[in-house]
Inverse folding.
């Protein structure tokens, strides 16, 4: 290397000092920018923390003296009302919001589906009762035939069991009819 191109110590010192000064200025500038940003965020937060309330000016109603204010009205206490059967509302006995007593009839429901089920249950009840009477008569006859040894004891027992099953079917049909009658009421 030539002696012209070798940096002197003094020159290197000045370059180092200039570089450190430049680095210090850059750090100071970054810290100042961060501080400005923090102050701006704090100011924005203070502004946003103030609650905003929407208001309006009440005016005289053109149709009368009533004043309509925006609101939501809800009952103090609620009582769910469930119908025991589905159908169509036939009549309404109590007004909405009126005080009622426990067990009071609030409305009548017309239920054609339930009416049809009740008629079907009644027909089934009559049919099962007729079957039970026929089975009982048959069982008595077969018991008389056993006494004369005209039929086997096994066949007579089968007829007696059939009579008991027919009686149980009639009782089940009667219970179903009673249940549907209670719903109809």
């Amino acid at each position: 290397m030539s002696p012209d191109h070798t940096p002197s110590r003094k020159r290197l010192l000045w370059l180092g000092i200039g570089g450190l000064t430049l680095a210090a200025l850059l750090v100071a500038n970054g810290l100042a920018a961060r501080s400005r940003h923090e102050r701006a965020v704090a100011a924005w937060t203070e502004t946003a923390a103030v609650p905003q309330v929407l208001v309006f000016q009440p005016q005289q109603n053109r149709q009368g003296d009533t004043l309509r204010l925006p609101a939501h009205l809800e009952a103090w206490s609620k009582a769910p009302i469930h119908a025991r059967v589905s159908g169509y509302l036939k009549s309404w006995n109590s007004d909405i919001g009126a005080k009622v007593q426990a067990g009071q009839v609030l409305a009548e429901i017309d239920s054609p589906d339930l009416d049809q089920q009740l008629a079907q249950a009644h027909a089934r009840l009559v049919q099962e009762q007729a079957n039970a009477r026929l089975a009982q008569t048959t069982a008595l006859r077969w018991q008389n035939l056993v006494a004369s040894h005209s039929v086997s004891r096994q066949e007579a027992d089968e007829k007696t069991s059939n009579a008991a099953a027919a009686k149980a079917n009639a009782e089940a049909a009667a219970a179903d009819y009673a249940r549907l009658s209670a719903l109809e009421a």
